[in-house]
Design the sequence.
């Protein structure tokens, strides 16, 4: 398949000194180039110090934007298409629109740019004169060039945010329409990835702060910048809220995970070249399974060497062997040690509370028997017990349809 | 609170003989583990573990990539964690026996013991003849598909735990019944 590119990616791909550079190197090169041109102008004509500083800030902003965009684009291209037919259609359309051959973002950029020029002309270049006095044609040209660069990035971020909001809403609507998901496999990682990309897109708004400063001199432009930032936040909020509702676990899996007291944690020890399997107490949220284990347990040692983990929760019912309900989860395990717990802060307290709520009888028992159990089993956070987080990459769910060979 | 060796032996035997479901953990060559609940039969004579699986499943393809496995059988107590107990077997794949082929006396013996253990479940499912009778006749009637294989695993290490206490030993140390 032909690689889909944004306009600026195509442009940079064609510039001889940029085409071979890594994205970050390209950004730095552009930054230096712009800055050199700008300083060249400064040497030629007298410019107020504040204008120089502001100009430099703007160039930094453009470089940062380029950097963010060059990170977002390949990541969105990498998001795999869902197996569900309708979801697949949405994601396909989303990618097509975002990286369309017609370069929609370029059209939006042109509209913004034209508007900007119209405004400059109608106000007799008041904005330019405010910062640098009577401009020469060369300075004007450079000013227009920077205006174009800003317009293009504003267009790109708005277009990306708009599409993201549309995509998340559509996905949410599909998931509401279909009853309990019939799919057996959920590529959870991709939702997380989309969330991260949305957040990254929001950083366009934060980077736009210099734009706000630069437009302070002109109330109209100032208002436009504020509207732009507000629009980005609004679109982000629509997408984020939709994804948040989307990522709730299917009801039947959520219920199974809540009812199952014990799960099985499978790991692979690369040192001994052998799998390891132990029953564990656990709690869960829509994206992770949490288990508690002893500091000295083999699990901790293995996870530090190989974080790949498999987790199975089922309801053991001796009478109903053929009616077993189970969920198999694959993902990566991470030990939430002291430093990590400080990093996630209140979330850690919430995880501990989840355990107390799910296993009140266990906690009580441990506390009562504290002096009888080895240190490794005493409920002392970080000293004897550690929480391990297993992030859910994919899930497989069986209910009553489990293949058991005995069925003749 | 020390564990009494005789109690351990007795409980271990009870777990492996009477529990119906065990959990099998295998891994592919990239180190990604996989878990599957299984019916199983443990032979205290040879310290071999037997189970039946479709040849096309992930567990069998994993075993062909990484031949070691972990197998856990446990009993859970909702109220008292000190009563949670179980056994973790570590072993290596010995062979896969194609069930659609002529079976050796040894494989047939293993199948017989296997079906004896699960007879209660199976009788209700098969009208007329019991599974054990079918096996006795030497027919491969309970093969669901021609893909099914009997997996033989030799166990080299056993961990038993009850509550916070655990003990590790060689399978040879299990006292064979009189």
Sequence:
């Amino acid at each position: 398949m032909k690689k889909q590119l944004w306009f600026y990616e195509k442009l940079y791909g064609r510039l001889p000194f940029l085409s071979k550079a890594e994205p970050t190197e390209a950004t730095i090169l552009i930054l230096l180039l712009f800055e050199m041109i700008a300083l060249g102008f400064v040497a030629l004509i007298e410019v107020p110090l504040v204008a120089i500083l502001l100009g430099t800030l703007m160039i930094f902003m453009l470089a940062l934007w380029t950097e963010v965009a060059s990170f977002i684009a390949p990541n969105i291209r990498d998001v795999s298409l869902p197996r569900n037919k309708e979801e697949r259609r949405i994601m396909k359309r989303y990618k097509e629109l975002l990286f369309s051959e017609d370069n929609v973002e370029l059209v939006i950029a042109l509209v913004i740019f034209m508007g900007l020029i119209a405004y400059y002309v109608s106000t007799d270049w008041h904005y330019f004169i405010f910062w640098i006095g009577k401009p020469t044609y060369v300075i004007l040209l450079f000013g227009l060039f920077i205006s174009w660069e800003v317009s293009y990035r504003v267009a790109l971020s708005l277009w990306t945010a708009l599409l993201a909001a549309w995509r998340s809403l559509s996905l949410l609507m599909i998931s509401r329409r279909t009853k309990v998901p019939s799919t057996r496999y959920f590529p959870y990682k991709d939702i997380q990835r989309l969330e991260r990309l949305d957040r990254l897109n929001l950083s366009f708004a934060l980077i736009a702060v210099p734009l706000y400063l630069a437009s302070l001199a002109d109330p109209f432009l100032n208002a436009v910048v504020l509207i732009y930032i507000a629009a980005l936040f609004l679109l982000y909020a629509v997408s984020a809220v939709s994804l948040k509702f989307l990522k709730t676990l299917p009801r039947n899996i959520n219920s199974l995970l809540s009812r199952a007291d014990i799960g099985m944690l499978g790991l692979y020890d690369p040192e001994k070249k052998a799998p390891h399997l132990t029953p564990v107490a656990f709690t869960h949220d829509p994206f992770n399974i949490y288990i508690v284990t002893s500091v000295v347990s083999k699990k901790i040692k293995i996870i530090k060497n190989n974080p790949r983990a498999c987790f199975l929760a089922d309801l053991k019912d001796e009478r109903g062997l053929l009616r077993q309900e189970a969920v198999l989860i694959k993902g990566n395990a991470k030990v939430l040690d002291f430093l990590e717990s400080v990093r996630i802060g209140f979330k850690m307290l919430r995880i501990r509370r989840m355990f107390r709520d799910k296993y009140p009888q266990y906690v009580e028992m441990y506390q009562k028997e504290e002096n009888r159990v080895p240190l490794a089993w005493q409920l002392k956070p970080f000293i004897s017990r550690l929480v391990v987080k297993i992030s859910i990459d994919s899930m497989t769910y069986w209910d009553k349809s489990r293949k058991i060979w005995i069925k003749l | 609170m020390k564990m009494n060796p005789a109690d351990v032996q007795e409980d271990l035997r009870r777990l492996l003989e009477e529990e119906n479901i065990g959990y099998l953990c295998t891994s592919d060559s990239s180190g990604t583990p996989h878990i599957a609940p299984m019916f199983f039969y443990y032979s205290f004579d040879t310290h071999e573990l037997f189970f039946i699986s479709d040849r096309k499943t992930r567990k069998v393809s994993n075993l062909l990539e990484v031949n070691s496995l972990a197998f856990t059988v446990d009993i859970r107590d909702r109220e008292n964690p000190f009563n949670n107990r179980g056994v973790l077997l570590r072993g290596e794949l010995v062979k896969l026996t194609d069930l659609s082929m002529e079976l050796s006396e040894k494989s047939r013996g293993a199948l017989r013991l296997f079906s004896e253990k699960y007879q209660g479940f199976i009788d209700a499912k098969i009208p007329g003849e019991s599974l054990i009778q079918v096996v006795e006749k030497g027919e491969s009637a309970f093969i669901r598909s021609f893909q099914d294989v009997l997996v033989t695993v030799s166990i080299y290490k056993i961990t038993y735990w009850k509550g916070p206490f655990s003990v590790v030993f060689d399978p040879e140390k299990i006292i064979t019944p009189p």
Q: What stands out?
A: DSSP finds 15 helices and six strands in chain A. The first strand of chain A starts at residue 262 and ends at 269. Residues 179-186, 401-408 of chain A have pLDDT under 50 and may be disordered. Chain A touches chain B through 46 residues (CB under 8 Å).
